[in-house]
Amino acid sequence: MFNKKSLYINAIKYNTQLKLDYKKLSNNQIIEANNSIFLVEDEILENDIAYKINTSQKEILNTYISTLLISDTTKLVPKSLSAELNDCETSELNNEFDIAVSKTTLFETENYFDKTGIDFVYSAFHILNLHLEENICKNQLLIFLFNNKAFILIIGNDSSIVFNKTVDLPTFEAVKKTHFYDDDITGQKLFDEIYYLELNEIIHNTLNKFYEKSNDTFVEKIVIFYVIKELSKEQIEQLSEESLLTIDYHPINIDEAIFELSKNKHQNKSFIKARKKVKKTNFNNLFILIVILAIFFGAYKLFENIIEKQEIKKEEIKKYVKLPNHININDKIENHIKLIFNKIPYDVVLKKLKLEENNLEMTATLLADDTFIKSLKPSLDDIYKQINIKVEDDKKNMILSKIIASKSLTLNDIIYKTYEDKYITDEFLPISRVSEQLKILFPKDTIIKFDSSTKDIISSFFYSISMLVKTPSEFFEVINVLNDELYSINIAYPIIMVTNKDGLLKIDFKLVFNQPK
Asked: CB-hemisphere CA count at 13 Å for 432?
């Protein structure tokens, strides 16, 4: 969306303020950023603010304006039911839920920006879901405090949303109207106390209501996101003691969250479609272009061969920057492992296996003196040219040996899977984003360690992975998960498998994440 010179304006209306966050971009890179805050009272944008925004839009025609719903009364609706809703507009949240808002409420937000126009409208639930996309959350109660409302999600053991709710919070204006209010100082203290008590009650009521309907999920942690810090460290500690749960209290950058939502990946989640941008025609440049074309038209044939050669070079470059086919690479390694397992005879107890592209090293217990000669070596002869054995211990016909096989033979009778879709290449993912994404793809206790990176036409991040599984089939399931990704993520040699004292299989291997530079 921001491939050329463009302007992004995030316009968020708080209770009595409108904050404008400006980002000037060129080729998806932020080249300038600033913000301003205005006091507002009307139900439509004041003329002076609208004038400021429209002036910027005239200077940069490729301008996009985004906002959050002014009155966020949204509800999460299962996708199977969202089509049946009347008088509502829906927006996508994730694979299971849509967000529904009344047409009247959506019109209120659109009408507020009638003088400037608006491109993207999101809900506070979109911000919470963005957090879920970027972080692993299980058995958690998430609360986003924004504009006198608490937006609540409970996340189950499988990281899915199992409960949602929106609750009103007390306002300072309401406290001022009570007979307990004397002045702003005592009023603020009173508001702080009421705010804490209300939030405490909201947490307890939410958990009680949830546990009445569900026995499958037990909340282990509460995460509270805020824009304006209303609670002190002592109050958070007190909340934690009273709820008997760990509580994290984090600020959230709404401007950056909405900016992320307004990018290509999340644009379709907006309640409205972005305005079509009018392309400005420069007639002077057009005239010059016509003259240039007229001059060079007669000489076109002379340069035709040069142009064709340039096109061929471009195609070669495109082929060169083609990302590694991760499904093909993963499938070859998976079949290699399965082939080795199928070749191990019944009278061999495998202790450790180290598999490289052309070599194999095994530590195993042989149950008979002639096991290696009669069964193991003949099985491996179909795969390797050289196979050697070194006996490490021999007790009661239980022979602990190290088997080394090298110079693997070419297997021509296997047809491997290949990736046919297009990879996601619309933005460059930094190491931190890639590491977080990998945490989601692997089982909970997997150790993921970043090793190094290379930056050429293809940028590759190299990781060391260590995971515990009960059976090799669980490892193959992880490979299937990687294969379902729209990114080039492939496992790499060496693959090391060791059976630990608990009978679990510890698997260590390399992983590569590839993307265009």
From this structure: 2
